[in-house]
Fold this protein.
Amino acid sequence: MQTKEMIERVSKQIGKPLSDTELSYKTQLVNEILEWKEKRNAVILGHNYMEPILYHTVTDFKGDSLELSRKAVETDKEVIVFCGVRFMAETAKILNPDKTVLLPSENAGCSLASSITGEHVRMLKKKFPGTPVVVYVNTYADVKAEADCCCTSSNAATVVKSLKSDRVIFLPDEFLAKNTARQIGRHIMFPKLVKSNGNEIEFDVNQDYQMIGWQGRCEVHERFTAEEVQEARKKFPDLVVLAHPECPPEVVEAADFAGSTTAMAKYVGKSDGRRYLLLTECAMGDNIAAIYPEKEIISLPRIRCPHMNQITLEATLKALKYNQYVIEVPEDIQMRARGAIQRMLELC
Ligand code: SF4
Protein backbone atom coordinates (compact mmCIF):
# COMPACT_ATOMS: atom_id res chain seq x y z
CA MET A 1 0.00 0.00 0.00
CA GLN A 2 1.24 3.52 -0.78
CA THR A 3 2.18 5.75 2.18
CA LYS A 4 -0.65 8.20 1.49
CA GLU A 5 -3.33 5.50 1.47
CA MET A 6 -1.90 3.92 4.57
CA ILE A 7 -2.02 7.23 6.51
CA GLU A 8 -5.51 7.94 5.22
CA ARG A 9 -6.74 4.51 6.29
CA VAL A 10 -5.20 4.73 9.80
CA SER A 11 -6.55 8.23 10.44
CA LYS A 12 -10.05 7.21 9.33
CA GLN A 13 -10.03 4.00 11.37
CA ILE A 14 -9.20 5.88 14.55
CA GLY A 15 -11.92 8.42 13.78
CA LYS A 16 -9.55 11.34 13.10
CA PRO A 17 -9.60 11.91 9.32
CA LEU A 18 -6.97 14.37 8.06
CA SER A 19 -7.43 17.42 5.82
CA ASP A 20 -5.67 17.32 2.41
CA THR A 21 -2.93 19.61 3.70
CA GLU A 22 -2.30 17.47 6.79
CA LEU A 23 -2.35 14.33 4.68
CA SER A 24 0.26 15.57 2.21
CA TYR A 25 2.46 16.95 5.07
CA LYS A 26 2.44 13.62 6.92
CA THR A 27 2.94 11.63 3.71
CA GLN A 28 6.06 13.64 2.92
CA LEU A 29 7.39 13.20 6.46
CA VAL A 30 6.80 9.44 6.46
CA ASN A 31 8.44 9.03 3.04
CA GLU A 32 11.47 11.01 4.19
CA ILE A 33 11.78 8.84 7.32
CA LEU A 34 11.61 5.68 5.18
CA GLU A 35 14.35 7.02 2.87
CA TRP A 36 16.59 7.97 5.78
CA LYS A 37 15.97 4.63 7.46
CA GLU A 38 17.31 2.91 4.34
CA LYS A 39 20.25 5.31 4.04
CA ARG A 40 21.31 4.83 7.66
CA ASN A 41 20.76 1.04 7.63
CA ALA A 42 18.45 1.57 10.60
CA VAL A 43 15.63 -0.31 12.27
CA ILE A 44 12.77 1.55 13.97
CA LEU A 45 11.23 -0.01 17.07
CA GLY A 46 7.86 1.40 18.11
CA HIS A 47 6.32 1.02 21.55
CA ASN A 48 2.56 0.39 21.70
CA TYR A 49 2.09 3.93 23.09
CA MET A 50 3.35 5.68 19.96
CA GLU A 51 0.94 7.93 18.11
CA PRO A 52 -0.99 5.89 15.47
CA ILE A 53 0.44 7.27 12.21
CA LEU A 54 4.03 6.83 13.36
CA TYR A 55 3.20 3.42 14.84
CA HIS A 56 1.52 2.06 11.72
CA THR A 57 3.77 3.51 9.02
CA VAL A 58 7.48 3.80 9.88
CA THR A 59 8.15 1.13 12.53
CA ASP A 60 9.70 -2.23 11.64
CA PHE A 61 8.69 -3.82 14.92
CA LYS A 62 5.96 -2.86 17.36
CA GLY A 63 5.22 -4.11 20.84
CA ASP A 64 5.74 -3.77 24.56
CA SER A 65 9.07 -3.45 26.38
CA LEU A 66 9.75 -7.19 26.44
CA GLU A 67 9.01 -7.77 22.76
CA LEU A 68 11.08 -4.79 21.70
CA SER A 69 13.99 -5.89 23.92
CA ARG A 70 13.92 -9.20 22.05
CA LYS A 71 13.81 -7.48 18.66
CA ALA A 72 16.70 -5.26 19.72
CA VAL A 73 18.83 -8.39 20.24
CA GLU A 74 17.87 -9.93 16.89
CA THR A 75 18.50 -6.97 14.61
CA ASP A 76 21.48 -6.89 12.25
CA LYS A 77 21.02 -3.18 11.41
CA GLU A 78 23.69 -0.67 12.39
CA VAL A 79 21.36 1.89 13.92
CA ILE A 80 18.39 1.35 16.25
CA VAL A 81 15.91 4.22 16.49
CA PHE A 82 13.83 3.64 19.59
CA CYS A 83 10.42 5.27 19.37
CA GLY A 84 9.68 4.97 23.07
CA VAL A 85 11.24 6.44 26.20
CA ARG A 86 14.78 6.64 27.56
CA PHE A 87 14.80 3.50 29.72
CA MET A 88 13.72 1.44 26.69
CA ALA A 89 16.46 2.90 24.50
CA GLU A 90 18.98 2.21 27.27
CA THR A 91 17.87 -1.44 27.32
CA ALA A 92 18.40 -1.63 23.55
CA LYS A 93 21.90 -0.15 23.98
CA ILE A 94 22.76 -2.59 26.79
CA LEU A 95 21.75 -5.51 24.57
CA ASN A 96 23.52 -4.05 21.52
CA PRO A 97 26.64 -2.33 22.87
CA ASP A 98 28.25 -2.04 19.42
CA LYS A 99 25.28 -0.41 17.72
CA THR A 100 24.20 3.20 17.61
CA VAL A 101 20.95 3.59 19.54
CA LEU A 102 18.98 6.80 19.00
CA LEU A 103 16.11 8.21 21.07
CA PRO A 104 14.26 10.91 19.07
CA SER A 105 13.72 13.19 22.10
CA GLU A 106 15.98 14.14 24.99
CA ASN A 107 12.93 14.69 27.19
CA ALA A 108 11.28 11.29 26.84
CA GLY A 109 11.69 10.20 30.48
CA CYS A 110 9.31 8.31 32.78
CA SER A 111 7.88 9.07 36.24
CA LEU A 112 8.35 5.47 37.30
CA ALA A 113 11.97 5.20 36.17
CA SER A 114 12.78 8.53 37.88
CA SER A 115 11.38 7.36 41.22
CA ILE A 116 14.46 5.30 42.11
CA THR A 117 18.25 5.34 41.69
CA GLY A 118 21.02 2.77 41.93
CA GLU A 119 21.94 4.29 45.31
CA HIS A 120 18.44 3.54 46.65
CA VAL A 121 18.77 -0.10 45.59
CA ARG A 122 22.20 -0.43 47.24
CA MET A 123 20.66 0.97 50.43
CA LEU A 124 17.87 -1.63 50.33
CA LYS A 125 20.35 -4.43 49.68
CA LYS A 126 22.33 -3.33 52.73
CA LYS A 127 19.17 -3.36 54.84
CA PHE A 128 18.02 -6.76 53.55
CA PRO A 129 21.28 -8.64 52.86
CA GLY A 130 21.03 -11.70 50.65
CA THR A 131 17.51 -10.85 49.46
CA PRO A 132 17.21 -11.18 45.67
CA VAL A 133 16.27 -8.00 43.79
CA VAL A 134 13.77 -7.90 40.91
CA VAL A 135 13.44 -4.63 39.00
CA TYR A 136 10.80 -3.70 36.50
CA VAL A 137 12.18 -2.88 33.05
CA ASN A 138 10.80 0.64 33.51
CA THR A 139 14.00 1.69 35.31
CA TYR A 140 17.27 3.33 34.28
CA ALA A 141 20.43 1.32 33.68
CA ASP A 142 22.04 2.11 37.08
CA VAL A 143 19.03 0.51 38.81
CA LYS A 144 19.04 -2.55 36.54
CA ALA A 145 22.76 -2.93 37.29
CA GLU A 146 21.90 -3.60 40.96
CA ALA A 147 19.28 -6.27 40.20
CA ASP A 148 19.38 -10.05 40.08
CA CYS A 149 16.68 -10.14 37.44
CA CYS A 150 14.48 -7.74 35.49
CA CYS A 151 10.76 -8.27 34.83
CA THR A 152 7.97 -6.78 32.74
CA SER A 153 4.29 -6.41 33.59
CA SER A 154 3.59 -9.69 31.77
CA ASN A 155 6.18 -11.85 33.53
CA ALA A 156 6.51 -10.27 37.02
CA ALA A 157 4.85 -13.19 38.87
CA THR A 158 6.88 -15.81 36.94
CA VAL A 159 10.15 -14.00 37.71
CA VAL A 160 9.41 -13.62 41.44
CA LYS A 161 8.40 -17.29 41.77
CA SER A 162 11.45 -18.46 39.80
CA LEU A 163 13.80 -17.00 42.41
CA LYS A 164 12.54 -19.57 44.96
CA SER A 165 13.27 -17.19 47.80
CA ASP A 166 11.09 -16.57 50.88
CA ARG A 167 11.65 -12.85 50.47
CA VAL A 168 12.16 -10.71 47.35
CA ILE A 169 12.86 -6.99 46.83
CA PHE A 170 10.56 -5.86 44.01
CA LEU A 171 11.12 -2.36 42.55
CA PRO A 172 9.97 0.32 41.83
CA ASP A 173 6.27 0.21 40.83
CA GLU A 174 4.04 0.22 43.90
CA PHE A 175 0.94 -0.97 42.05
CA LEU A 176 2.63 -3.64 39.92
CA ALA A 177 4.19 -4.92 43.16
CA LYS A 178 0.83 -4.99 44.97
CA ASN A 179 -0.92 -6.64 42.01
CA THR A 180 1.86 -9.22 41.69
CA ALA A 181 1.90 -9.92 45.44
CA ARG A 182 -1.85 -10.51 45.38
CA GLN A 183 -1.58 -12.75 42.31
CA ILE A 184 0.96 -15.06 43.97
CA GLY A 185 -0.38 -14.77 47.52
CA ARG A 186 2.44 -12.85 49.20
CA HIS A 187 2.41 -9.98 51.68
CA ILE A 188 4.25 -6.85 50.68
CA MET A 189 5.86 -4.10 52.76
CA PHE A 190 7.04 -0.66 51.66
CA PRO A 191 10.04 0.76 53.56
CA LYS A 192 10.06 4.48 54.21
CA LEU A 193 12.85 6.68 52.89
CA VAL A 194 14.02 8.72 55.89
CA LYS A 195 16.79 10.83 54.37
CA SER A 196 16.44 12.15 50.88
CA ASN A 197 20.19 11.97 50.36
CA GLY A 198 19.54 8.29 50.12
CA ASN A 199 21.30 6.59 53.00
CA GLU A 200 18.59 5.85 55.55
CA ILE A 201 15.42 3.82 55.26
CA GLU A 202 12.96 2.70 57.88
CA PHE A 203 10.86 -0.45 58.02
CA ASP A 204 8.69 -2.34 60.44
CA VAL A 205 10.48 -5.59 61.27
CA ASN A 206 7.44 -7.02 63.01
CA GLN A 207 5.35 -7.09 59.85
CA ASP A 208 4.84 -10.38 58.08
CA TYR A 209 6.01 -9.84 54.52
CA GLN A 210 7.56 -11.78 51.66
CA MET A 211 8.02 -8.88 49.27
CA ILE A 212 9.67 -5.49 49.79
CA GLY A 213 8.42 -2.80 47.45
CA TRP A 214 9.04 0.84 46.56
CA GLN A 215 6.51 3.63 46.06
CA GLY A 216 7.18 4.58 42.45
CA ARG A 217 4.18 5.18 40.22
CA CYS A 218 3.34 5.64 36.56
CA GLU A 219 1.78 9.08 36.24
CA VAL A 220 -0.67 7.75 33.64
CA HIS A 221 -1.91 4.51 35.22
CA GLU A 222 -2.18 5.87 38.77
CA ARG A 223 -4.97 8.18 37.60
CA PHE A 224 -7.56 5.50 36.77
CA THR A 225 -10.19 4.78 39.41
CA ALA A 226 -12.60 1.93 40.15
CA GLU A 227 -15.45 4.50 40.13
CA GLU A 228 -14.68 5.32 36.49
CA VAL A 229 -14.94 1.65 35.65
CA GLN A 230 -18.34 1.39 37.38
CA GLU A 231 -19.61 4.52 35.61
CA ALA A 232 -18.47 3.19 32.23
CA ARG A 233 -20.14 -0.18 32.87
CA LYS A 234 -23.42 1.60 33.70
CA LYS A 235 -23.22 3.52 30.43
CA PHE A 236 -22.22 0.51 28.31
CA PRO A 237 -23.48 -2.72 29.89
CA ASP A 238 -21.69 -4.90 27.28
CA LEU A 239 -18.31 -3.31 28.02
CA VAL A 240 -15.19 -5.49 28.39
CA VAL A 241 -12.71 -3.76 30.69
CA LEU A 242 -8.95 -4.31 30.33
CA ALA A 243 -6.46 -2.83 32.81
CA HIS A 244 -2.68 -2.53 32.81
CA PRO A 245 -1.04 -3.96 35.99
CA GLU A 246 0.48 -0.51 36.70
CA CYS A 247 -3.09 0.58 37.66
CA PRO A 248 -4.12 0.63 41.36
CA PRO A 249 -5.19 -2.83 42.69
CA GLU A 250 -8.87 -1.83 43.06
CA VAL A 251 -8.91 -0.86 39.35
CA VAL A 252 -7.33 -4.16 38.33
CA GLU A 253 -9.91 -5.92 40.49
CA ALA A 254 -12.76 -4.07 38.79
CA ALA A 255 -11.50 -5.08 35.32
CA ASP A 256 -12.29 -8.25 33.36
CA PHE A 257 -8.66 -8.78 32.37
CA ALA A 258 -5.28 -7.38 33.42
CA GLY A 259 -2.15 -7.66 31.31
CA SER A 260 0.64 -5.95 29.46
CA THR A 261 -0.12 -3.82 26.41
CA THR A 262 0.57 -6.75 24.09
CA ALA A 263 -1.59 -9.09 26.18
CA MET A 264 -4.42 -6.52 25.96
CA ALA A 265 -4.08 -6.28 22.17
CA LYS A 266 -4.20 -10.08 21.87
CA TYR A 267 -7.20 -10.24 24.18
CA VAL A 268 -9.15 -7.78 22.00
CA GLY A 269 -8.19 -9.75 18.88
CA LYS A 270 -9.36 -13.08 20.27
CA SER A 271 -12.43 -12.09 22.26
CA ASP A 272 -15.95 -11.85 20.80
CA GLY A 273 -16.84 -8.64 22.64
CA ARG A 274 -17.80 -5.59 20.62
CA ARG A 275 -16.87 -2.74 22.99
CA TYR A 276 -13.71 -2.42 25.12
CA LEU A 277 -12.48 0.02 27.73
CA LEU A 278 -8.69 0.12 27.86
CA LEU A 279 -7.25 1.43 31.12
CA THR A 280 -3.87 2.41 29.78
CA GLU A 281 -2.19 5.16 27.77
CA CYS A 282 -4.71 6.45 25.20
CA ALA A 283 -2.59 6.04 22.04
CA MET A 284 -2.71 2.31 22.67
CA GLY A 285 -6.50 2.38 22.24
CA ASP A 286 -6.12 4.23 18.92
CA ASN A 287 -3.52 1.73 17.72
CA ILE A 288 -5.80 -1.20 18.51
CA ALA A 289 -8.76 0.56 16.91
CA ALA A 290 -6.76 0.85 13.69
CA ILE A 291 -6.09 -2.92 13.73
CA TYR A 292 -9.65 -3.99 14.62
CA PRO A 293 -11.97 -1.43 13.01
CA GLU A 294 -14.98 -3.68 13.68
CA LYS A 295 -14.50 -3.28 17.47
CA GLU A 296 -15.22 -0.16 19.48
CA ILE A 297 -12.36 0.95 21.70
CA ILE A 298 -13.14 3.38 24.48
CA SER A 299 -10.54 5.29 26.52
CA LEU A 300 -12.22 7.03 29.46
CA PRO A 301 -10.63 9.39 30.27
CA ARG A 302 -8.00 9.82 27.55
CA ILE A 303 -4.63 10.11 29.30
CA ARG A 304 -1.57 10.72 27.15
CA CYS A 305 1.87 10.03 28.60
CA PRO A 306 3.80 13.32 28.32
CA HIS A 307 7.04 11.41 27.75
CA MET A 308 5.78 9.15 24.96
CA ASN A 309 4.18 12.24 23.44
CA GLN A 310 7.66 13.69 22.78
CA ILE A 311 8.24 11.11 20.05
CA THR A 312 6.74 12.50 16.87
CA LEU A 313 7.28 11.90 13.14
CA GLU A 314 9.27 15.15 13.02
CA ALA A 315 11.52 14.08 15.93
CA THR A 316 12.05 10.64 14.35
CA LEU A 317 13.15 12.20 11.06
CA LYS A 318 15.58 14.50 12.87
CA ALA A 319 16.96 11.54 14.84
CA LEU A 320 17.90 9.77 11.61
CA LYS A 321 19.12 12.89 9.80
CA TYR A 322 21.21 14.39 12.59
CA ASN A 323 22.09 11.23 14.54
CA GLN A 324 20.33 12.35 17.70
CA TYR A 325 20.04 11.60 20.59
CA VAL A 326 22.74 8.99 20.97
CA ILE A 327 22.23 6.74 24.01
CA GLU A 328 25.35 6.03 26.05
CA VAL A 329 25.56 3.77 29.12
CA PRO A 330 28.86 3.44 31.07
CA GLU A 331 30.47 0.08 30.36
CA ASP A 332 30.49 -1.34 33.92
CA ILE A 333 26.79 -0.47 34.34
CA GLN A 334 26.02 -1.97 30.93
CA MET A 335 27.69 -5.22 31.88
CA ARG A 336 25.84 -5.65 35.17
CA ALA A 337 22.48 -4.51 33.79
CA ARG A 338 22.84 -6.90 30.83
CA GLY A 339 23.02 -9.85 33.23
CA ALA A 340 19.68 -8.90 34.84
CA ILE A 341 17.95 -8.35 31.48
CA GLN A 342 19.33 -11.57 29.99
CA ARG A 343 18.21 -13.59 33.00
CA MET A 344 14.66 -12.34 32.35
CA LEU A 345 14.85 -13.08 28.62
CA GLU A 346 16.08 -16.62 29.28
CA LEU A 347 13.42 -17.20 31.89
CA CYS A 348 10.42 -15.93 29.96
S1 SF4 B 1 3.16 5.55 30.49
FE1 SF4 B 1 3.90 5.62 32.61
S2 SF4 B 1 5.42 3.98 32.75
FE2 SF4 B 1 5.09 4.41 30.55
S3 SF4 B 1 6.65 5.95 30.05
FE3 SF4 B 1 4.79 7.08 30.59
S4 SF4 B 1 5.08 7.52 32.78
FE4 SF4 B 1 6.53 5.88 32.28
